[in-house]
Amino acid sequence: MAMPEKPKAVILLSGGLDSTTVLAIASAAGFAPYGITFRYGQRHATEIDFARRVAQAMGIVEQIVVDIDLRCFGGSALTSDIKIPKHQDVDRIGDEIPVTYVPARNTIFLSFALAWAEVLSAGDIFIGVNALDYSGYPDCRPEYIAAYQQMANLATKRSVEGEQVTIHTPLLHWTKAEIIQRGLELGVNYGLTASCYDPTSDGLACGQCDACLLRLRGFAENDRADPARYVGDD
User: Fold this and answer.
1) What is the Cα–Cα distance from 56 to 21, expressed in whole angstroms?
2) Angle at 65 between CA 49 and CA 59, to 5 degrees
3) Residue 127: how many CB atoms within 10 A of its CB?
């Protein structure tokens, strides 16, 4: 007897710790994962290479890299010459929305993912947004995801014809330590991932941006060394 075909899911895959964990979660839940990665003019464009490595290592059915240039808008330290904030320790990260917020980025990304999901006849989209270990990005909040899903189910031919789409956010209420713990349980090789906002040209993490500090704390809380490569490592 033929095995039933796995349901397709589109995974927003940046090559970072969170999106890689989401990929592992989706795969473990029985989905056939299709990865969508964005080259959007980000200064940490080395993440594209990491996303490709993750996709190859973790059995993505298909990966596409979408080119959109958000540098034409700017407004973020990730897409303009605004200085990336650096701190000596994680406790110095403020509560205000940081300059690393990219205006409307998740709305743009989810729109591309929604379009591809419709073409694939996929009813599921996974995104690694997190409302805890970030500085209040407006497009990482539960109410934002709920509103986007409602819009998505009004916006496509498939949904109008009765095939609803579900946006999965398994990391939404987890700390970085909990995300890492779950990934380790699923066998994720975090040495393939990159989180730094301001890496060197050869991909070494700076160790002082918000993303690095939160990542390092998450590994420390799991009594694990971060396998990523940092500036100053031997």
Assistant:
1) 15
2) 70
3) 26
Q: Beginning with the edge strand found earlier in the chain, give each strand of the sheet holding 166-168 in spatial order.
A: 62-67, 32-39, 8-12, 124-126, 166-168
pTM (2 decimals)?
0.94
Tell me the average pLDDT of the chain: 93
Contacts of 190 (CB under 8 A, 6+ apart): 17, 20, 180, 183, 184, 226, 227, 228
Mean pLDDT for 157-173 is 95
Contacts of 16 (CB under 8 A, 6+ apart): 47, 50, 128, 193, 194, 195, 211
Determine the Cα–Cα distance for residues 210 and 50; give it in Å rounded to an integer: 19
Best CA proximity match to 119, nearest among 152, 147, 157: 157
The pLDDT tens digits of the residues spanning 78-110 come to 999 999 999 877 777 777 888 999 999 999 999
Element (H, E) at 105: helix 105-120
Single-letter amino acid code for the residue at 46? T
Reading the block at residue 141, the tokens are 């909040």
- Give me the residue spans of the domains in the chain: 8-221
Confidence at residue 52, expressed as pLDDT on a 0 to 100 scale: 97
Residue whose C-alpha is closest to residue 100's, from 132, 50, 138, 128:
138
The amino acid sitting at 15 is G
CATH superfamily of 8-221: HUPs (3.40.50.620)
Please choose, from the candidates 34, 59, 197, 202, the residue with its C-alpha nearest in 3D space to the C-alpha of residue 124. 34
Q: How far is Cα 128 from Cα 54, in angstroms, rounded to an integer?
A: 15
